[in-house]
Amino acid sequence: MSGPSERSLWRNRAFLLLFSGQIVSSVGDQVQDFALLLLLIGMSGRTGQVGLVLGLNTASFLVFGPFAGALVDRWDRRRTMIGCELVRAAATGALAAAIWLHDLRLPYMCAFAVLTGAASTLFQAAGAAALPNVVGPGRLPQALGASQGAVNAVRVSGAPLGAVVYTFSRVMPFLVNSVSFLASAVTLRFMRIPFQEYAAMAPGGRRRPSGVVADTREGLAWLWHQPVIRFLTLVQTGDSLRYGSGYLVIMSLAEAVHAKPAQIGFVFTGAAVGALCGSITARRAVDRFAVGQIAVAMLWAQALIFPLYVLAPNALALGVVAAAESVIAPIYVVAIGAYRLSVAPDHLRGRAAAAAQSLTTGALALGTMLGGTLIAVLGARTATLALAAWLVFLALVTTLNRRARTARTQPEHSSDTAVVAGTSPSQQLDGVAG
């Protein structure tokens, strides 16, 4: 039988199961996220309470993120992902029941935000760490590009679909998402390919004994001593900081040209369409260009396009600018993701992915908070130019970093990916996925 790296991605049963579960879950998430915002506003009308619930969800990513990476490197990743989906299904179903019984309270919403945030953090870290073992190192860019494309395709129609489902019934979006989590768990249950190296596992599906804090430190130390990954992750974090602020700035610019809510939605739909186009071309771009070259191109493109928001006279023009700015970003996400996963040894992949995720999520949240202050102090137009200047700075430092600029995604074949001595592939399969 051909190994994962030799098999066509679309003939890889394990990847198709993982991919289909991801699509179903993404649809449910998009429907729920929009409905959740409407529900929170409808509960009290207080933006402070809305911010509290959404902030708790983000905080769970930041606090739990580094430890999540250590846990998924210790535990059986497939079983961990199944457990996370079941937890999210139960939490979402319980919220739907509270809505149906007219007993929805703010403490329930806060508990829901923390629980689903922690489960999502764990799931994403496990999924990222498992992907090279599911598709093989040679198929990583293609697999990541397909995943990005699916997520961005769902984004295009997610908000309108969420509005329709929420209008039909307040309970329905949460029931839909609860079912989507169960469907994802079922697809994972049918997968039999190992999600990690069996050599790193102890009997019973757990990694050999060591402390979680020590494991977390080991992962952070490894990431810090990888100069290319460290630098590009910090650049990605800096861009996420700008993205968080830019979201509010663009909304303010849209309001300044008297755009209606539906027209503002069109602006962000334009961004989703641009991201979808970028996802489609991601694999070919990653195969042809160095990850650092893609980073340089992305940052300079954003630095040149972002000021055009100031010149846009209406929502249609804002949507066109948003689409143009969003094309190259998913290509970089695929490139840096493939590079990080191919360089990291299997027993550290969860921690490497979780550390990067925590940094970028934290920067996104901080950027959103700073965006409001930036607009209040400078005004939306000047704030746009200030963010463009920040992008120029990031582009310059990346351009001048020769090592990062020339880094190329190449799967590593080392002792870290070796099988257990004296153990056949079928024995490894039974031990990890049985």
Describe the structure.
The protein is mostly helical and 434 residues long. It has one domain (9-433): Growth Hormone, Chain: A, CATH 1.20.1250. The protein has 17 helices and 2 strands. The chain has helices at residues 13-44, 47-74, 77-100, 106-135, 140-168, 172-189, 212-224, 227-256, 261-288, 291-305, 308-311, 315-326, 329-343, 349-378, 380-400, 402-406, 425-433, and strands spanning 201-202, 206-207. The protein has a two-stranded antiparallel ribbon.
In short:
By secondary structure, the chain is mainly alpha-helical.
Structural features:
single chain, Growth Hormone, Chain: A, 79% helix, 2 strands, disordered C terminus, globular, 1% strand, 434 residues, mainly alpha, two-stranded antiparallel ribbon
